[in-house]
Design a protein that fits this description.
Helices cover 36% and strands 26% of the residues. It is an alpha+beta fold. The structure holds guanosine-5'-triphosphate (GTP). One of its GO terms (molecular function) is GTP binding.
């Protein structure tokens, strides 16, 4: 050992300079810089200091400390679903101790040497050079022995002095470099030491690698567990907890606790996290547990939560199969909810099946069944009206023997032919003398008692009410009395009434009224009726006819007799026992009294206090009166009554049923309200001509029902014949009503109740008809070319509709005044009633809603200015090109033609 600089020494011993300087300072030596010289004595002092620091003294066992730090990376899924890389550092420290006999020998040797020290100076000098080498040899030997001992895993405590070797791994790629005090040794010794050291190093490296791999494995396993817990992935990986891992005990244990706490909270709220069908107690239900597979591994943790033995936080590994109840229609979103899957999944499945729907759209039962099966669940078909059907069946069962009931009659006919007069006459002639002249109130119906029996009249004359009722599915009327004025004959509304009665399949009795009049010509009337396929009995047909006069009372009894005979033929029966069932005739909301509802009892007996379900409202009968305003306590079949007690006014034609369970009443009322809403939506699409084919398929005999209105009788007849000829064996065309003139509200009502399309040839719908058709979604088509109309119906029959030229009416102006000039011909001063009048669009001139001219405008002005358009509410002046016959009150209709691709 020679004097050298700190830097040189650091290089020799393989230590960083600053570390060495620190140790020098700790040893109490003066060197502070890398270039400072350290003498051999000072080097000895440093070695002795280091020995002391590392626990080496003259007496002690060999002690080896192995320190390891491994750094690895692991990928974990974060809660956001993204994978992220984290660094994992594992630190380990192992200390091995062993008694060192060599040290004892070295100590003895040192003692002998110390004795010899004082003998000669020469010897002293010699010893001075030998001592460090021997010390180093001893130390190296001790190190090797200690490492061997460590390799054999002998851990024996001893009081002898120890030598410390710190093996530190700096990086995973670099070999472990032990810090040793380098001995001065012979070549042989060096070789032996190196061989031994290499062997030890290899062994140690293997042990280290194994330990590091195990640690990494364990860490990764824990990471995976945590990732599967916190991610939304529902692959259902089973969680295994390694008890002796501090990480598992910490974070994973926390994850368990979190899960249980959350479940506890949900249970307290009454919800269930994992199984929506397992009732309020979450996953506790027996069935639910059978369907789910929960890992029991968490039991090992012995967590002290109340639910620890009952719940697992894993998602079910097995798919749950639901019984999905499907009514006649189901909204896509509801269907998805019943299967507990996302709506977009259902929409995707429907798209694959070729159905493009939105989540709020309803699909039919058949399609829904396919979707449910496709998604692996069980479809269960239920009727929408199940609850109602049950109520009706229960009411029917409670009913007793059926007896003959009075007929219910509706009087129809053309305006001013005497419907009201006839009803009054019948009523006056048949009410008890005491009541005559008394206060009668209009409740929409009354009944009369004749010698031969009771007859009930619905006293809302006209077919509008009749058809409105029918369109709600009610069949209140048994017989129609068709009033025709003897002096007027068959008029448009007479024909309409015939169509309505026929469409409903109701028998007709003709009353030829005003027979007292001199101009009465009953034969002409009968003739005209025959052209409408109403053949009187006296002419060999099947329609009874009575000649009456509402004024004189002539023939009234005869008419009543005919009604009763017809009723007898029809064998009308009902039972007066059991819960009442009937139909709403009229309903209104009266200030102070609330909803006032007129009901025609059709079966059973209605009593005060009964819980009545009418349409989508229900309530108890608080008060009940007859048609004379007399309070009554009960009413049997065919008796009209007025009741108070419903929360709101139902619609005419709504079914009425007495129920005894309020819950059921509410259930049915809600279901009806839903159905009503759905029906409105369906009707809007089904009533379109292009959808006629689809709805035809559902009928026994496919038929296209048509209501035809035309400008002139000749065209009407030609069209009717042409349409009749379109009928084939497979599909029929039925012109259920036809007439000359504008399309009226009544046409729209008939179209609605008969599921017919309304075709107008050179005619338009009047304002009320247009409003009603818009409101009810009834399709009205206008034509001005015969073959286009025929083609459309033909295509609708075959289910193939070519792209349609659809007209949109852009604006309507009414002619207020006509100015004539020799220069321009006729110029019309107009008021724009609807929309916008455009100068450059095609126009039609309408007179009484019938087209009289078709062409374009010559000019359009606001005051003196020529303008391109004029809006509703403004006046304008216009001239029609090539048409000078314009008149006051004519309408100028501006329209546009668009190509609309049709879909079925
Ligand atoms: N001479 C005579 N006139 C009658 C007879 N019946 C009704 N009238 C008259 O005919 C007119 C119309 O009678 P209504 O009973 O109002 O006829 P309606 O069919 O109910 O009329 P709308 O309610 O407008 O549809 C009235 O002026 C009646 O007086 C009858 O038998 N003989």
């Amino acid at each position: 050992m020679t004097d050298k600089t700190i830097q040189d020494l650091a290089q020799t011993v393989g230590r960083p300079v600053d570390k060495l300087l620190e140790q020098v300072r700790e040893a109490g030596l003066p060197q502070r810089n890398a270039n400072d010289t350290i003498t051999t004595e000072q080097q000895d002092t440093l070695v002795n200091h280091l020995k002391k620091v590392h626990g080496q003294d003259a007496s002690g066992a060999g002690k080896i400390t192995l320190k390891r730090k491994t750094t690895s990376t692991a990928k974990v899924a974060s809660t956001s679903g993204k994978a992220k890389t984290i660094n994992v550092e594992v630190r380990k420290k192992h200390t091995f101790t062993k008694p060192n006999p060599e040290q004892i020998a070295a100590e003895a040797k040192a003692r002998v040497e110390a004795e010899a020290k004082g003998r000669t100076d020469e010897k002293v000098n010699q010893q001075t050079t030998q001592q460090p080498r021997e010390k180093a040899e001893n130390k190296a030997q001790a190190t090797l022995d200690a490492m061997r001992a460590a390799q054999k895993k002998e851990t024996v405590k001893a009081e002898t002095s120890t030598t410390e070797v710190v093996v530190k791994r700096r990086s995973t790629n670099k070999p472990i470099k032990p810090i040793v005090v380098k001995p001065t040794e012979t070549a042989e010794q060096k070789k032996a030491r190196e061989a031994e050291s290499a062997k030890l190093k290899a062994t140690e490296e293997a042990v280290r690698r194994k330990a590091a791999e195990e640690a990494q494995q364990r860490t990764l396993e824990q990471m995976r567990q945590m990732a599967s817990k916190y991610s939304n992935d529902d692959t259902g990986a089973t969680i295994r907890v390694i008890d002796d891992s501090p990480l598992a005990a910490g974070l994973v244990g926390q994850a368990y606790e979190d899960s249980f706490n959350q479940e506890d909270r949900e249970i307290k709220r009454g919800g269930a996290t994992t199984n929506p069908r397992a009732g309020k107690k979450g996953g506790r239900g027996g069935d639910a547990q059978a369907e789910q597979s929960f890992s029991k591994s968490h039991h090992k943790r012995g967590l002290k939560t109340s639910q620890a033995n009952k719940h697992g936080f894993e998602k079910p590994v097995k798919k749950q199969i639901y019984d999905v109840e499907i009514g006649e229609k189901i909204v896509v979103a509801d269907l998805a909810q019943k299967m507990a899957i996302k709506v977009r999944e259902v929409i995707k499945t429907l798209m694959k099946m070729g159905e493009l729907v939105t989540q709020n759209q309803a699909i039919d039962q058949d399609t829904a069944v396919l979707v449910v099966e496709e998604m692996g669940h069980n479809p269960v078909l239920v009727s929408d009206t199940q609850a109602e059907d049950n109520l009706l069946v229960a009411a029917e069962e409670a009913r007793g023997e059926q007896t003959t009931r009075p007929p219910v009659v509706t009087i129809m006919g053309h305006v001013d032919h005497g419907k009201t007069s006839l009803l009054d006459r019948i009523r006056r002639s048949k009410v008890a003398a005491g009541e005559a002249g008394g206060i009668t109130q209009h409740i929409g119906a009354y009944h009369v008692e004749t010698d031969k029996g009771i007859i009930t009249f619905l006293d809302t004359p006209g077919h509008a009410a009749f058809t409105a009722m029918r369109s709600r599915g009610a069949k209140a009327t048994d017989i129609v009395v068709l009033v025709v004025a003897a002096d007027d004959g068959v008029m448009p509304q007479t024909a309409e009434a015939i169509d309505h009665a026929r469409a409903a399949g109701t028998p007709i009795i003709v009353a030829i009224n005003k027979m007292d009049k001199e101009s009465a010509d009953p034969d002409r009337v009968l003739n005209e009726l025959t052209t409408k396929q109403i053949v009187p009995e006296q002419w060999g047909g099947d329609v009874p006819v009575a000649m009456v006069s509402a004024h004189s009372g002539q023939g009234i009894d005869e008419l009543l007799d005919l009604i009763l005979i017809q009723a007898e033929l029809m064998e009308l029966k009902a039972s007066s026992e059991g819960a009442a069932q009937g139909v709403v005739i009229e309903a209104r909301v009266d200030k102070g009294r609330g909803a006032v509802t007129s009901i025609l009892v059709q079966n059973g007996t209605l009593n005060i206090g009964d819980l009545v379900l009418a349409g989508s409202s229900y309530g108890r009968v608080r008060a009940m009166s007859d048609e004379n305003g007399q309070p009554i306590k009960s009413a049997g079949p065919s008796i009209p009554v007025e009741i108070l007690g419903l929360p709101d006014a139902p619609m005419a034609g709504d079914e009425v049923l007495v129920v005894n369970d309020e819950k059921k009443a509410r259930e049915v009322a809600d279901a009806r309200a839903d159905r009503e809403r759905q029906k409105r939506i369906d009707r809007q699409s089904a009533m379109r001509l292009e959808n006629i084919m689809a709805s035809m398929g559902k009928k026994d005999v496919p038929a296209v029902n048509v209501i035809l209105k035309a400008d002139v009788r000749g065209t009407l007849e030609a069209l009717t014949v042409a349409l009749d000829e379109l009928s084939t064996d497979e599909v029929k065309v039925r012109v259920i009503s036809s007439g000359v003139g504008a399309i009226t509200e009544s046409d729209v009502t008939l179209a609605e109740s008969s599921e017919a399309v309304l075709l107008g040839f050179n005619v338009r719908a009047d304002t009320t008809a247009r409003q009603k058709s818009d409101q009810d979604g009834i399709d009205i088509r206008y034509y001005s070319i015969i073959y286009e109309l025929i083609d459309d119906v033909k295509n609708a029959m075959s289910g193939k509709l070519a792209p349609e030229h659809r007209e949109t009416i852009l604006g309507v102006a009414q002619v207020r005044e006509v100015f004539r000039s020799s220069k321009f011909g006729a110029a019309a001063g107009c008021m724009v009633m609807e929309g916008v009048i455009h100068r450059n669009k095609p126009i039609r001139v309408l007179r009484d809603d019938v087209v009289v001219f078709q062409g374009e405008l010559e000019s359009l002005r606001r005051y003196k200015d020529v303008v391109d358009e004029v809006r509703a509410g403004m006046e304008c002046g216009l001239a029609v090109k090539g048409y000078n016959d314009i008149k006051a009150l004519d309408k100028i209709e501006v329209y546009d033609v668009q190509m609309v691709k049709r879909s079925l």
